[in-house]
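Take a minute with the sequence and fold tokens given here and flag any structure token that looks odd. Thanks in advance.
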Amino acid sequence: MNRSELDPDASPESKFGAFLRSSRDARKWTQEELGARVGYSGTHVSAVENGRRPPTPRFARQLDRVLGTEDLFQRQARELHSSALLEGFAEYAAHEARAVELRLFDLGIVPGLLQTQGYAAAIAAAAVRRGSITQDQADERVAVLARRQAKLNREPAPRLHVVMDESCIRRPVGGPGTMAAQLEHLVAVAKLPNTLLQVAPYAIGEDRAFDLPVNILTLPDRSLMSYAESSQQGHLERDTNSVEPILTAYYQLQALALPQADAVALLCQLRKELP
């Protein structure tokens, strides 16, 4: 049986799934056997273990009853439902950590994997001031991002393609010092041998392929996944055939975007304009 690796530190969903698997393994029960005891299918148990489906309060309550864990599953489920991470993101992050190639597009803000700690903290702090998330949720976002960034340093390093809308580098975030450090970091990232960094200029207008951030993963078996999100909803596409048109659109965007040398020159110019 193929078992996906679970990283309990990736997100609250992953933490719940890893605890569920370890508790089930301790009793030597299969997913089907546990499912029969709690009144759910083995497929449902698998989906929760792997972060593809969030646990409902009833499911968590049944787990505590059957596994004799008092209210541990229920408490974790409550923490999960108060998470600032969008649906589908936990599973995406797990696949991101093993992808051999990542293609990123963002607009408005620098892609998370390329954000400095100061830049990420400023974005999270602004969301707290607006009342859209709590301070605990802000801390969670920054911590999850740091763990995702750390996993890019694995060997062999994944190939990283990044196209940023021009708005990402022109929008000031966190003050001049924070923005200067972020621009310098992007220049450093562009020098990495596994990275291609481009900027989609305002001049391409309506020919920009995407109106929302989108990430495309190539996994070790060459299958594709994509993840896109709005401010309130995330969507993970697991079917390669459905992702291929998105990949084609990404290639079209790359063709219109500034080459890396020109993108780096623009980054350096914007850095010089800061105090």
In short: The chain has two domains: 12-81, 89-273. Strands lie at 101-106, 159-165, 195-200, 214-218, 224-229, 234-237.
